[in-house]
Each structure stands twice: as C-alpha cells, then as structure tokens.
Specification:
Blueprint lengths: L1 H43 L4 H31 L1 H4 L9 H26 L2 H4 L5
Keywords: Membrane, Transmembrane, Transmembrane helix
C-alpha cells in the first residue's frame, strides 16, 4: 500500500513540475514560430516576407496569449491566494506544495506573457529583411 501512495505522490509531483514548465514552453514555441517564420520567409521571398511575417506573428501571438491566459487563470486558482489570504506557503504539507506549484506557475506564466508580447514587436518595427 505504501508503494502505491509513493507512486501516486511521485506522479502528482511530476505533474506539478510539468504544470510549472508549461508557460515557458508556450513562450519558447512562440519564439521559435515567429523567428523561424521570419527567417525562412525573408530568405525565400524578401519582397513579400514582412507582410506575411506580420500576419503569422499576430496569429501565433494571439494563440500563445490565449493559451497563456487560460494557464494563468488555472495557476491563480491552484495558488488559491484569495481563499487563504496568505501568499506564503511555508509548510511541508501536500496542500502547501500544491499552492507553491500554483504560485510558481502563475509567476512563470506572467513572465511568459511579457516575453510573448515583447517577441511579437520586432516584425512591426523593421522595414526590410536586410
């Protein structure tokens, strides 16, 4: 029985780590999508590349922001700071670890939102592919 509980707790901890890493993973996917699209289009068709790159950037940014905002909301609920009224979670209980995971996911997702918005800007400030 203790082995089953240990496996379940390990599975929960792995899921919590994946939960925390999801925001930066979306940010990374957005970064790669925007910059690979820009690089390929500028190399293949420089005359029309910026217009297409801007459209793709807007679409990728909207998709990434939608996913990140959902994740931010879920992380906020997992953190549960409103009900507890306490941003600290110093204990070693399962609930404190659960809330810490939500807190970390919330902060990293907020950072990822800022990163996505910053990475969406360059195609709109450059005039040519050169």
């Amino acid at each position: 029985m203790a082995g089953d509980e240990d496996e379940q707790e390990l599975g929960t901890e792995v899921a919590a780590l994946l939960w925390i890493a999801l925001g930066p993973a979306i940010w990374t996917a957005h970064f790669l999508g925007v910059y690979i699209t820009g690089a390929v289009l500028c190399a293949k068709t420089p005359a029309v590349a910026l217009g297409t790159t801007r459209i793709v950037t807007v679409l990728l940014t909207l998709a990434a922001l939608a996913m990140l905002l959902v994740l931010l909301r879920l992380a906020w609920r997992r953190w549960d700071v409103v009900r507890h009224g306490d941003i600290l979670h110093e204990g070693d209980s399962v609930e404190d670890r659960h809330r810490f995971g939500g807190h970390a996911a919330f902060l990293l997702t907020g950072l990822a939102i800022i990163g996505v918005l910053m990475m969406a800007l360059p195609p709109f400030f450059i005039d040519t592919c050169r």
